[in-house]
Amino acid sequence: MFKKILIANRGEIACRVIKTARRMGIATVAVYSDADKHALHVRMADEAVHIGPAPANQSYIVIDNILAAIRETGVEAVHPGYGFLSENPKFAAALEKEGVAFIGPPKGAIEAMGDKITSKKLAKEAGVNTVPGVMGLIEDADEAVKISQEIGYPVMIKASAGGGGKGMRIAWNDEEAREGFQSSKNEAASSFGDDRIFIEKFVTQPRHIEIQVLGDSHGNCIYLGERECSIQRRNQKVIEEAPSPFLDEETRKAMGEQACALARAVDYCSAGTVEFIVDGDKNFYFLEMNTRLQVEHPVTELITGVDLVEQMIRVAAGETLALTQDDISLDGWAIESRLYAEDPYRNFLPSIGRLTRYRPPEEAVGDTAVVRNDTGVFEGGEISMYYDPMIAKLCTWGPTRADALEGMRDALDGFEVEGIGHNLPFLSAVMDHPRFISGDITTAFIAEEYPDGFAGAELPEPVLRQLAAAAAAMHRVSEIRAARVSGRMSNHEREVGADWVVSLAGHDYPVTIAADREGSTVKFAHGGQHRVASDWKPGMPLAVLDIDADRVVIKAEPVPLGYRMRHRGADLIVKVQTPRQFELSQHMLEKVPPDTSKMLLCPMPGLMVSVAVEQGQEVQEGQVLCTVEAMKMENVLRAERQAVVAKINAGAGDSLAVDDVIMEFE
Which one is catalytic: 288, 301, 336, 629? Predict the structure, then answer.
């Protein structure tokens, strides 16, 4: 077995590999860019080597820089994680020449299956159903349009060397095909150093289901069940689960056997994933094979008990798989939520900055519940514009899907992240969405259920009443403390008012509080009451309360006359006022926000790639104004209506912050 390995990656996956290596008694070496000098993976590793400037194409994907680190530290093997160099055959070849083991498949398998065009041809030859498309490389936008017309819209434009949603566009017409071709080429070149593009039919109403395979260099290959990855945004997975709520055992077996047959055809060894599109009749079509560890591998580990990173290391060391297909059984259900530095209230645009607060739920392993959090960040750390916006992968396991869902709801409620925009509210909202709960999902789920973007979850009336009761009880505690601090209270007793009006989400609830040593009974003027008990104290950002028979977790932040409360995907301003304050507040004028209708504001921090218009030019609704790159993704900004450009404040190459004025209109 290896004594020392290098992880040619960063963030949560580097930390994940280090954990398993440490458990196996293997020393680890981290690599880092200028931006990652103080990163968590650098802290966790036994050694760390600097490999270049912040941009990945000057550090993490420069093979010579990784080789220099290998020579400096004398490692015996390299784990590539995912992304970066993980599916680069030149890197595998360079390691082979260096005499260092690659903890992944052979160079030939990467070339055959890592290239999407070649893999589709091989799959077709092996008798695997494939999605209709043109596997030849597309030279220019005109050819892309012509091919798209022949296949029939909609089409998927994809980078041959792509992954993680990068270099992918859906086109519904000629204009989108032309534009998507160029954007995909640009993203592919930036992220992978390979701008080859191909086009295939986009299957509507599909489910994205993938099979985890594991092979060794002795001809053995097994599959470890499937993962449902249909909750996607911009072709990037957001929530995954294992097993799929859609498959039956017969379909699972057929998909698994096809996946292994394909792997054996290219002498595949190590962990890999065969991705399929599955239609409503359980017909499945080969999509691609990822010759690496997948981001969502933890859910497979949770239902099989197999440490995939350990198996990859053992296979790379030449060991024979200790597992056979008969040894694999699926136990319970696991769900993964990807926590991204993306603001759901701003159309999921990237957010960067310092994590002023980062408190994930406590990890736990039990017979009936598991909470796991794979992360590469820490409180006080920076989220950079140079890399993928993932903060953490939160996973829960339970004996049933309902148990795993409830565990995820509780874990998300208790996950504290402050300082940046993030998608925790959206993840919580999905967990309570009736369609997701039923398992009736497709890759169009987000587009169909949130067509106008995410504006926060709408909580049902019973939950709003619980929050109102909680706010009233918490306010009473705050009032008592304020009196004690001010010295206005003798013998720790003071008559705190019992009557209040709690306002939230357009509702006004007059309530009366009756308190005792064990808690408070909050009675609603229009009927009903809640019993609230908690050890919450003013200043605590997380309130854990027992409301009647329910355990309720609320992120609470004081604001004038009340609290900002975040719970189950809702972000609410809750006011607690005396009846007189409430009466007077009805006469207060609301502040009118400034008019920005004649400005194009930058929706996310990023780099201006190009400006498509000139000062004085008349633009039409939907016309491209500029392109901003953030976290390896190009974002095209368009005109909302007809207007004349009065002033342009930013040009190509400029760094932009959120709400910077890019241009102004007459």
Answer: 288
